[in-house]
Amino acid sequence: MFTRRQFLLAGGSLGVAALALEVLPRLGGDALLSEPAVAEEAFEVSHSDREWRDLLSAEQYQVLRKQGTERAYSSPLNDEHRAGTFSCAGCQLALFPSANKFDSHTGWPSFWAPLEHAVAERSDRAFGLQRTEVHCRRCGGHLGHVFDDGPAPTGLRYCMNGLAMNFIAQAA
After folding, report:
1. Which residues of 13-35 are buried (b: 16+ CB within 10 A; e: fewer)?
2. What is the pLDDT of residues 27-48, one digit of tens each?
3. What pTM was estimated for this model as a whole?
4. From 88, 91, 136, 159, the catalytic residue
5. Which residues touch 5 (CB under 8 Å, ≥6 apart)?
6. At a CB cut-off of 8 Å and minimum separation 6, what does 130 contact?
7. Domain boundaries along the sequence of the chain
8. If you write DSSP's letter for every residue of 10-76 in order, what string do you get?
9. According to the model, what pLDDT value does residue 3 have?
10. 139 carries an active-site annotation
11. What pLDDT, on a 0 to 100 scale, did the predictor assign at position 105?
12. How far apart are CA 38 and CA 143, in angstroms?
């Protein structure tokens, strides 16, 4: 039987361990815990940090350049159902056709497949979890993650941040 003090100490220790898994790699700790940052890769479209800050809103910068995540159900793109194309908010590269969008009931725009040669993926071990991060192949902007719980025909769910994208409606 655990005492209240033992329970609190165990919980606190787990919290510290989880924080260490997230923070230590970013401070130069164990390289096995984290993949290289986007900034270390070369992309067709590149800007200095200052230029990205000037080009993007503060919220877009946090998502696209700092791998942030917007709050669930906060993006108007989650409810976008017109025919058109979702593009990268950083470089305007077309990423997803609206025909591939579906309602995943997760609170983020979700797609079962991107356009060909639009996105790239890398391992993401943030928060001690193994996930697959999705980024724009042209500018390296963080878009979201891909999971294997999506619908046919791919079985994939590209769970994207609305702040990372723009929508261009198809001309009538």
Report:
1. eeeeeeeebeeebeeeeeeeebe
2. 333 333 334 344 467 899 999 9
3. 0.76
4. 159
5. none
6. 123, 124
7. 1-32, 35-169
8. HHHHHHHHHHHHHHHHHTT--GGG-PPPGGGS--SS---HHHHHHHS-HHHHHHHTT---PPTT--G
9. 62
10. no
11. 95
12. 12
Q: How far apart are CA 157 and CA 37, in angstroms?
A: 23
Domain 35-169 is in which class?
Answer: mainly beta
Classify residue 107 as left (phi > 0), alpha (psi -120 to 50) or beta.
left
Long-range contacts of 43-49 (CB under 8 A, 24+ apart): 43/136, 43/137, 43/138, 43/139, 43/140, 44/91, 44/138, 44/139, 45/90, 45/91, 45/138, 45/139, 46/139, 46/140
Residue corresponding to tokens 């700092």: 66
DSSP state of 135: E
44's tokens: 């067709």
